[in-house]
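Write out this protein's structure.
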Amino acid sequence: MAQWRLIVSQSLKISNIVPRNIPPPTSRLQPRVQTTLLTSTSAMLNFGIIGTGWITASFVTSAHSTKKWQLRAVYSRNSSSASDFSSKFSSDVAEPIKSHTELSELASDPEVQAVYIASPNSLHYAHAKQMLEGGKHVILEKPATSTSAELDSLFALAKSKNLFLIEAFRHLHEVNFKILKKELSRLGRIFGGSLNYAAYSSRYDNVLKGEVPNIFNLDFSGGSLVDLGVYPISAAIALFGAPKSSSYSPVMIATGADGGGTILLQYDGFTVSILASKIYTSTAPSEVFGEKGTLSVPTITDIESVKFLDAKLKGKATELGGKRCDLNLKEEAELFAGIIEGADWAAAKELEALSRAVIEVTESCRRANGLTFKVEKGQ
């Protein structure tokens, strides 16, 4: 497996993505809230969106709350969907929000500087490519692309045009994840970890009825590993670096996709086990075990608390966590605005290395289990 070394930036504080010994995620996103009217300013980043689902609405709300972003355009193939989405935020911004039904219109819109993409997984590559070719910075919801080859192509295109391409792993920028990372030094020698994210998806009800929703359809680059497993996988890589090897034992469902499973990440001297599922729910915490104690969080995303269980005090818990942000995507929106406005290429390179390491794990695990996406067939 290729190894990607990160330049650690003070703003991100994500570990070097290289295998090493370490020495001395779930509620839904918050519902939309009304934000203060944004005034047009040259310092504001005007952005467009592709995808009008709940995650997009959450990003727009969070972005507006930072006073650094202003929604200027909405793309949807359905004009009424674009208009309906725009109307939800029209009172938040000083300028009218445009609705586009053609991707080319958004890509060539001179008033749009960046585009947030939350379309179906299999469309991420084509949508991001068109926006980059149009001169837009791109923020991609996870998983950024279906394959590592697609990701390589997009990063090369972004570099050639002096543009930023950023994958949105929101949970890594939350205050309590940063605390979890910082407090690893309490543990001394690392013995292992257990990171869990299992939440029943209502889309599985459709599968039980004989339907094939996109999220459980390999033709649309679906499955639990890439849709939900990337949360704990990216967390492990942010905490410990890229693993030496990885394996996946999936639970297969009628659609031919994986509904969940167990992932093992092997490091020098320890193993991180990951439970990820969209077909059942687990309330098990996520923990990192060390010589001097254990760090425990109730979920790997939307972390409410960070506890240190002291080995010498029979597991007595000390709370280390801070107050979680009310808007789950605000911290990433703040960070991404700073990267783009400040031309912070070092921070962007760090996030790029993280994205590359994550897709190397998921791609290896998929292919070892015959989970082949439509885009890969015939290659």
